[in-house]
Structures are given as C-alpha cells and as structure tokens.
Design goal:
By secondary structure, the chain is an alpha/beta fold. The protein has a single domain (about 1-220), classed as 3-Layer(aba) Sandwich (Rossmann fold), CATH 3.40.50. Helix content is about 45%, strand content about 15%. It has helices at about 10-20, 50-60, 85-115, 125-130, 135-155, 180-185, 200-210, and strands spanning about 1-5, 25-30, 40-45, 70, 115-120, 160-165, 220. A seven-stranded parallel sheet has the order 3-2-1-4-5-6-7, sandwiched between helices.
Length: about 230
C-alpha cells in the first residue's frame, strides 16, 4: 500500500488516481475524507500526532504492508518577508515541515518492518530560485529538502529510499489568485519553459517509487529543471 497525504485535491489527488490506474494500492489522507474517488481517503490532519498514531495502529492491526509514503500535503502563502506575520509562518511550518516529519517518523517503522520502502517528500522550485514574496514557504520547503537528505542516510540500512520533488507552478487550484504574469515569471526561469500538469508530476512519482529507481535516494528533482 502507498500512503499519500494531501490526497483530496491538486497534486496529491492526481498522484492517487494515477497510481490506482497503474494497479497500485493507495490510501489517501486529507483533512476531509472522501468516498468519491478511485481510492479511499481518510480524514486526518498531518499536524496532529495523535491522529497519525491512531492511523499507524489501525494499519498494524490490519497487518498492512506499507510500500511507500508520499507527502504531498502542503500550503503556501505569498507575502514579502517583512510583512509576513509570525502566525502565518507558524501555520506554514506546521503543515509543510512538521507534518512531513511526523508522517515520516511514524510511517517509516512500518516500512522497516516490511524490509524496504520509498518516501517522496514535496519541495518547490521556489527554493532553488529564492523567489521573492515566498520567504516562509521557501524556508519550510528548504527544511524539507535538508531533512530528507539526512533521513535518506539514516534509513538506507533498511533499504528505504527518500527523495524530494520540487515542482514549479502546476496547474492546480493552489494557483488560484496568482496572476499569469507571476506564473510566467517563474516558468521562464525553468530550463523547460512551460507549465506542467499534475498528471505529469504523478508520473514522476510513479517512476521514483518503482524499483527501476532503486539507485536514487537523497535527491531533489526539480520539475522543469533549474
């Protein structure tokens, strides 16, 4: 089974649908559960350690083999660094960084028990580009990248790989309110100068999870290139 956070919309939903189509067993996680998709989505807040602990207990009780974890849950806020309230920064860090760390900390032991696994965490191309107006978001994702590199070393003895994907602007509802001019400015800084779709990111996740990528760990792959 592959556990995917942020699975009710955007990139997380696209990943869940794609992996289901290619025959993988998927368990989605989102703050609001859903029964309308091609895979189950349970209600869980990645910022709540107790909820994650209960999920892990349930998975152990059901004797589920966890093959992979995809941490696609995330939030973004655009504001100049000197105009970003501490409360906003805390909210971003809680979800993007601490939520990712909590899921890895509690799900990885299930992979260790199974003898192997793969973790894909999500960063952003904004880290490499040091994008103005996204300081708290960039800081949270830069920390995710650093955490993932350390975790890759710590889990390598258990045959568990850890990698990051860093998308640019992806065609999802997360871009609502972002002007075409802002999107074009970022896209033009990519090596491949076009906006990618969530389905294309899902295909990349599938490749990273596959045994064909068993030599890949501790890396951050930028969608579109920088």
């Amino acid at each position: 089974m592959i556990v995917i956070t942020g699975a009710s919309r955007g990139i997380g939903l696209a990943i869940g649908k794609h992996l289901t189509r290619v025959g993988r067993s998927v368990l989605g996680i989102a703050r609001t559960g859903s029964q309308g998709e091609s895979f189950p989505i349970v209600s869980l807040d990645v910022c709540d350690d107790e909820q994650i602990t209960q999920l892990v207990r349930d998975l152990r009780t059901e004797d589920q083999k966890i093959e992979a974890l995809v941490n696609a849950a995330g939030i973004a806020r655009m504001n100049l660094a000197l105009m970003t309230p501490s409360s906003t920064t805390k909210t971003i860090l809680d979800t993007n960084l601490l939520g990712t760390m909590a899921m890895c900390r509690q799900i990885a032991p299930l992979m260790i028990r199974g003898g192997s696994g793969s973790i894909v965490n999500f960063s952003t191309i904004a880290v490499s580009l040091s994008l103005e107006g996204e300081s708290s978001y960039v800081a949270s994702k830069a920390a995710v990248e650093a955490y993932s590199r350390v975790l890759a070393k710590e889990l390598s003895a258990h045959q568990i790989r850890v990698n990051c994907i860093a998308p640019g602007p992806i065609q999802t509802e997360l871009l609502r309110g972002v002007s075409e001019k802002q999107i074009s400015r970022i896209v033009n800084k990519q090596i491949i100068k076009r906006q990618f779709k969530a389905d294309e990111v899902a295909e990349l996740v599938e490749l990273i999870l596959d045994n064909r990528a068993k030599c890949l760990t501790g890396q951050t792959l930028s969608v579109g290139g920088v």
